[in-house]
Input
Amino acid sequence: MTVLRWNEARMRERCQELAGLLADTVDGGASVGFLAPLRPAEAAGWWRERAGAVAAGRLAVWAAVDGADRVVGTVGLALPDKPSSRHRAEIVKLMVHRSARGQGLGRRLLATAEHAAVSAGLTLLHLDTETGSPAEHLYRSAGWTPAGTIPDYAVSPSGELRPTTLYYKRVGPPAG
Output
């Protein structure tokens, strides 16, 4: 599999494939901010908005494609816009298609975003994930530290309120 950073044009070109990945993630029960069933137009519209954030420099997105050039994963790095928070960023929408799971792709996408953060001079990353989800094992095993749990923070694709655990990871040299 190939993992590459995508620009606005590539995201717009492949918007429907990104939408399919998002729909598969929601259909698989992952709490990524959408309710099931996720309409293709809604998923594509969400990705088009993200393309605008990429163009504005507020978001970096990496996509993983398999040997058939099919989108099977993504991860984003949301960059803050305030001067006092430019040392940190948020990992967002780490998604792996159900057909590509169990091959280390989630870990590879996470490591890609972490390395890019270090290269950009960032020193702190944070994220949130549904408490008790399979993603928690990935983050803990990759050295992320739980910062706390918020009850009833997320809504599962089926509409159930679920707790969310916040995580952080120090990367790169400490801020001076």
Q: What stands out?
A: The radius of gyration is 16 Å.
